[in-house]
Design a protein that fits this description.
The chain has about 190 residues and is mainly β. The chain contains 2 helices and 11 strands, in the order αβββββββββββα. It is about 10% helix and about 30% strand. The strands form 2 sheets. Strands 1, 2, 4, 5, 6, 8, 10 and 11 form an 8-stranded antiparallel sheet that branches. The protein has a 3-stranded antiparallel sheet with strand order 3-9-7, with no helix packed on it.
């Protein structure tokens, strides 16, 4: 009876396996740099508070992930004022975080999430909301706007903070009713 060394059988097989490049090795490396993010769709149909609230502090993106900045906008609102969902979505959180009431809504048909704080929630996790539906009321305490009460409105795509004002269509961003302007140098119909 003849015995074959394990080394004689396994060594050539291991050598072939180690030296043979895997199928993915022939693919070109990914392009350097960050992948461009898709634009934020203007899906909002209403402001979270009021008709056109005063923006007390705007969006100031941080230079680095953990750097200083303002990851949302602060909207002037009196305590007890209703806070509304800006677009249709599903409530993913309604509760307290660090002593403040917070409501988060995943916007339907997008990869975006809005947050509102400090808010006393009137919705629960899993609730479906439509544009303009009340999700809570502005809390008297917990505001970081100094002596004024405000609602901090945030927007995220995954872990990236975005400017929530970009959700608003241009006609909703401007103050006052729409106005029709005269069309010049066009003959009137006879």
């Amino acid at each position: 009876m003849r015995y074959v060394s394990v080394r004689a059988v396994l060594l050539p097989a291991l050598t072939v396996a180690v030296l043979t490049p895997p199928a993915w090795a022939d693919r070109p490396p990914p392009a350097p740099g960050p992948t461009p993010a898709s634009p934020v769709p203007a899906v909002a149909r209403t402001w979270p508070v009021g008709v056109h609230p005063l923006v007390l502090r705007g969006w100031e993106p941080p230079a680095t992930v953990y750097g200083p900045g303002h990851r949302g906008v602060d909207l002037s609102a009196p305590a007890g004022a209703p806070v509304r969902a800006v677009a249709a979505g599903r409530v993913t959180f309604a509760g307290r975080v660090a002593g403040r009431g917070v409501v988060s809504v995943d916007l339907s048909g997008t990869d975006l999430r809005t947050t509102y704080e400090p808010v006393t929630p009137s919705v629960r996790k899993g609730d479906e909301v439509g544009p303009g539906d009340v999700v809570g009321t502005v809390e008297r305490t917990g505001s970081h706007c100094g002596t004024a009460t405000c609602v901090h409105w945030g927007l995220r795509r995954g872990g990236t903070y975005l400017n929530p004002l970009s959700l608003l269509p241009p006609w909703l961003l401007h103050r006052g009713p729409p106005r029709l302007l005269p069309v010049l140098e066009v003959p009137l119909p006879s």
